Amino acid sequence: MGATSTPATTTFAPRAPRVRLKPYREVVVGGLKTACLSRAQMMALMVKDCLAAREDSRRRPKLVFASNGHVVSLAASDAEFRRLNEFADMIHADGQPVVLASKLTRAPIPERSATTDFFHDAVIAARENGLTFFILGATEDVNANCAATMREMYPGLTIIGRRNGYFSRDEEAAICAEINASGADVVWVGLGVPLEHSFCVRNKHRLKAGWIVTAGGCFNYVTGDYTRAPDWMQRLGLEWLHRLCREPRRLFRRYAITNPHALFLLLTRTAAAKAGPIVADIGSQGSLLQPKAG
Prior knowledge:
Layout: E1 26-29, E2 32-35, H1 39-55, E3 62-67, H2 69-77, H3 79-86, E4 90-93, H4 96-102, H5 115-129, E5 132-137, H6 140-153, E6 158-163, H7 172-182, E7 186-190, H8 195-203, E8 211-214, H9 218-223, H10 231-235, H11 239-246, H12 248-268, E9 271-272, E10 281-282, E11 288-289
Parallel strand pairs: 3-4, 3-8, 5-6, 5-7, 7-8
Antiparallel strand pairs: 1-2, 1-9, 10-11
């Protein structure tokens, strides 16, 4: 199973997602319900959920997916992929255009939570709270180098297991057993869109971690195989242009098709989600606050 971008044609029948109250607000951006959270608030939720999962063996892991232009476009054009996103416990704003589009509503997303940035945020929270990681995906060289680089950058970080992203469906049960045996709190799944989404939904019932997070090409950024765009391009939502300039042959067709489609969706399918009861609020610095009385 390689990290490639192909239509989500996986056939499976997990239980329909149940509607649960969430301790944060959501906004529909480009057709996907997206969390109105800062990176600090995501860190706080990750720690809370992972520690709770340790205390309750019956608790299922939270699926944390990312939204960007590519995901928004694919979810609108591929019914199976759209259904996969409905199983997410949280969809966060990986792409700056998602954040900018949310400003059209009364519930704007406070900031971008690019997975490549949040990966490092999560490390800091993990070290402070004794959480452990399992890294799944990419080639063997990239996977091993990513783990080694993160351990060197963050002494005290516990990457308790890792595995490359090339395996068959028949191997998934054994891989999940390996992850469970490791006792990992957070599983980072970097198989590419939409394969990583299919894997997460299909195997949620097998895994005992606190969070399962789609990571895309995050591991390649850690190793330096991919490079980030300058800050000004990231702020303006032009990171795709930086990537296109570096890999025009591979990415031109993708961006030529998905960018106009995504822009249309961001402008026409963005609206504040229906207000629901907020069971808790999250402070601006990430601390979890109790519901207000009355």
